[in-house]
Amino acid sequence: MSVSGKSVLKRLDWFSVLIYISLVFIGWINIYSSTFTEDDPSIFNFASLHGKQLFFIGTSAVAIIIILALEANFYERFSSLFYIISLAMLLGLFVFGKTIAGATSWYDLGFFNLQPSEFAKVATALALAKYLSDIQTDIKRQKDQMISILIILIPAFLIIPQPDPGSALVFFALIFVIFREGLPLYYLSIGIMVILIFILTLMFGTIWVAIILGLLLALFLLLKKPSFKVPIIPVTLIYVAIVLFSLSVNFVFNSVFEQRHRDRFGLWLRLEKDPKKLEEIRKTIGYNTYQSEKAIESGGLFGKGFLEGTRTKGDFVPEQHTDYIFSTVGEEWGFIGTATVVILFTLLLLRLVHLAERQKNDFSRMYGYGVISILFIHYFINIGMVTGVLPTIGIPLPFFSYGGSGLLFFTALLFIFLKLDANRLNELT
Amino acid sequence: MRKILLSSIILLVGITFIGRLSYLQIFSFSPNQVLEDPAIKAVYDYPERGYIYDRNGELLVANQPAYDVMVIPREVKPLDTLEFCNLLGIDKERFVSQLKKARVYSPRLPSVLVPQLSKEDYGRLQEKMRRYEGFYIQKRSLRYYDTNSGANVLGYISEVNEWDLERNPSYAAGELKGTTGIEKEYETILRGRKGVKYIQKDRFNRDIGPYKNSTLDTLPEQGKQITVTIDKILQEYGEKLMTGKHGGVVALEPATGEILALISGPTYDPALLVGRERSRNYSKLHYDTISKPTFDRSLLASQSPGSPFKTLNALVALQEGAITPETTIHCYNGFYVGKRKRGCHCGGGSRNLNSGIYLSCNAYFAGTFRKIYDQYPTSAEAMDVWEKHMKSFGLGTFLGYDLPTGRPGRIPNKEYYNRIYGEKRWSSSTIISNSIGQGEVEVTPIQLANMTAAIANRGHYFTPHILKKIGAEDISIPEFTEAKHTTIDIKYFEPVVQGMAEVYRKGTAARLQIEGIEIAGKTGTVENFTRINGVRTQLTDNSVFVAFAPVDNPKIAIAVYIENGYFGSRFAGHIASLMIEKYLKGEITRGDLEKRMLEKTLEEEYAKPYSGQPFKINERVW
After folding, report:
1. What is the mean pLDDT of residues B81-96?
2. Taking every annotated instance into account, which residue ranges of this chain make up the domain Penicillin-binding protein dimerisation (chain B) (predicted)?
């Protein structure tokens, strides 16, 4: 234990650790700024949000020490147990859950609200890696494909009714792990196809989707090699299926979606053509995004300076210390600040891909991909939303956003992988 | 392939984000963010507008406080409405409707509940205001006039409109701005510079402290006081004489070009356009299309000058060698234009320059005019010379004085007549009316006064101006302090001046002499026409008079133009004479003359064209 304890610090990937520390530090600075009031500038006031976040950072540091101190194979061995516990906790929310802002997503532990969906992300990543790395699992088998997908879907479906569709969405990112391990490409193709047709139908309508698709098909038939035999019936069936799906999109959009969802899509895809009405929608339904975009824009190249963000001080961006924390970076630190954060995330994710690929142990590699998938989807959707590239989906920015459970379990997610990586040479001996 | 896919996606997303951020923060970034930022409110601190003094240091325009009762609807607590309405001096319905209006505008922001309380109401209200939550009193500064005259020349201030806002970013909505007269011309000096405080707001528009610790804030810069060239006593006296008469009176100091009085009749009390009744009074004045009180006739009424213009024709003829003072022309109680005879009031006989002027002989000046044209082979060439000389007196063009309105008048030129009659199809006979100041030539009263000043100075003038001092400093604007020379040699002025002096001694204005002051002047009786239901109808002649005094060391040059006043020596001559006496002596010795001017009005005359009945013109009034 003492020998491996020494070696873990030596073999730890300090590059990743350094980026992690930078992100947590920058994040806290911005939480401090967005929750700062002139009356109470003290840092160590645990009644204030930035004080609480400082406490969570301390807790995370303790968690890191524990995670690094434990045996590496502890995580693999107990992954199924963690998964079952996390499902139980998600189920328990239906009975004991605490409701904050309309979502029953927390357990009230008195000093701290625990969000089990954050824990479930770690547990699911572990469980998926465990299942896929099992010698008896063959990803080419349809049954095993289904089971691995089910591992992802169960927690996701337990989270949707909280309601927290954003967090549920995160689990779908884990499909990428299965894909990396050999899930046939057509799963991904179908997924991309579905999203594409959904968007195209909303933008151009079913008729145009059908016509354009038909024209593409005709073009293909004209240009194909004479020797290539087209399977007429399946192609026709696929075509019909697509058109039917396109029709169902209209139905789902108009009848199943709520008005606020429709508005979000309408805003994102610019479905409203009248520029005046669009501007109106941006300022009402798209209020959060509009304000955050304006805050980021007003920062300019160099930003307004630490604690000088006028829109931040005026609380113009709602939820600025949680999901919209990136707008504080934009306003106070300008393009220099935002670009730095994007670069740090990009470097961390690329580094993790590198680390995952060098794992000799299948479990470590698959878990590594799970970590990357989860961090990436958070980062992608959050910054996409805050900068107005993606529709509003409320999920936090890892290591950055205010929130105890989030920081703690993102830290655990990362450091379990770093521990596995540090241990990779021991596996061989 | 699957191994690099994820890395590629990560890189692609990173690049996309950097692209999006550079679009937002570098390309869409606007440097005016302090003004556009909803989180920063600029609160302006308005300096007091500069006072205006007359040439002797007498106060003309100052400021007075006015008190608006403001309301923030959200903060209003239940109150004794009846008692409060009594205090405010409004009825309950008005109170309720105003409150509702304010709430519709914004529940969080202040609105005006009752504008511009009087000082007395303010005094009663002030101590009780604390009891009414959500209401407070805001002080504003309004103009105060220490005179009831000079409305048009002083001008007024009013709220800036959208056009001003677009053109000049230093104004904000609701601010006041000089709109006419001196207030407009010297707006930037009088206004000073407003101070600004930047306040950090939250999204509910509540103050949460100063922005950047007030480092960007500025203090207001006081507006400067100005001294104008107007003589308050003369201005007030002139306006009193002009009661019931339409026309313009301009008095200048020939040695400097300073405007001593600028009177337009009818006028109004400048205080009418201040305070609660402002908009009602304004519409009343603005829609009075018969007497047009807001139309500054002294600067804008472009009309035939009549006989005073003869003096200039005499000067041009002398300069061109067309006549000498001794040249005589015989008057047969008129003169001929082709076969048409034009009349003359001089009594007939042989006229030279001197008697031509003091008896205002039309035949003499028609002959003189012809002689000028006979000097040149073609009428066109003669016209060019004539035009050049006339324009050197500041006629036919904007004078360049420092007031915001004006007309160029008209000195016709050869292009003008070519257009009307065709090239070479006109001659001196065609345009002979110009010789006696009728015809196509047009001047404004201030041009007429300036021309008189040029004669008084024997050949030069200073551009008329209204500004004398900024703060304590005399102006040094070359445009106003450097003499403008006419194209007539000094030696030709004396005979003309002597003729004008004879006007008072034994000519058309012999009864208007002032004991102990030698005056030179010239009467004018100007035919004029209007259209009534499309029919050209002659009205009673305009009464015109120009004069300067004393003849040898002129202190005042004056032009009086009275619409439909008949003979020049009547209304215009009387007013000119009285004003000269008032200015030079400080008192009036001829009480009967003054009494007549104060009592006689021309209202009846002005009503004639609107009566719908046939009417007589040029009736004897006294």
Report:
1. 86
2. 46-207
Backbone angles phi, psi at B252, to 5 degrees: -120, 155
Residue B537 CA, distance from chain mean position: 29
| Percent of chain B clearing pLDDT 70 (strictly above) | 98
CB atoms within 10 A of CB B117: 21
Alpha carbon distance B260, B247 (integer Å): 17
A250/B contact by beta carbon, under 8 A:
no
Which residues does chain B have within 8 Å of residue A36's beta carbon, measured at their own beta carbons? none
Q: Which residues of B317-329 are buried (b: 16+ CB within 10 A; e: fewer)?
A: bbbbebbebebeb
Give residue for tokens 């930035």: A50
Q: Write down the architecture of domain B232-285+295-610 according to CATH.
A: 3-Layer(aba) Sandwich (3.40)
C-alpha B371/C-alpha B432 separation (Å) is: 11
Single-letter residue type at B45: D
A342 CB neighbours in chain B (<8 A) are 14, 17-18, 21
Answer yes or no: are the C-beta atoms of B584 and B549 closer than 8 Å.
Answer: yes
Interface test with B, best of A181, A292, A297 (most B CBs within 10 A): A297
Q: How far is Cα B274 from Cα B154, in angstroms, rounded to an integer?
A: 13
Q: Which of A176, A338, A380 is closest, CB to CB, to B13?
A: A380
DSSP state of B133: T
Size of chain B in residues: 622
Are B141 and B130 in contact by the 8 Å Cβ rule? The answer is no
How confident is the model over B494-525, as pLDDT tens digits? 999 999 999 999 888 888 888 889 999 999 99
Q: Which of B26, B33, B40 sits opposite A335 (nearest CB)?
A: B26
Predicted confidence (pLDDT) at residue A4 exceeds the cutoff of 60: no
Measure the CA–CA gap between B363 and B331, rounded to whole angstroms: 5
Per-residue pLDDT of A331-384, as tens digits, reads 999 999 999 999 999 999 999 999 999 998 899 999 999 999 999 999 999 999
Residue where the block lists tokens 């990543």: A125
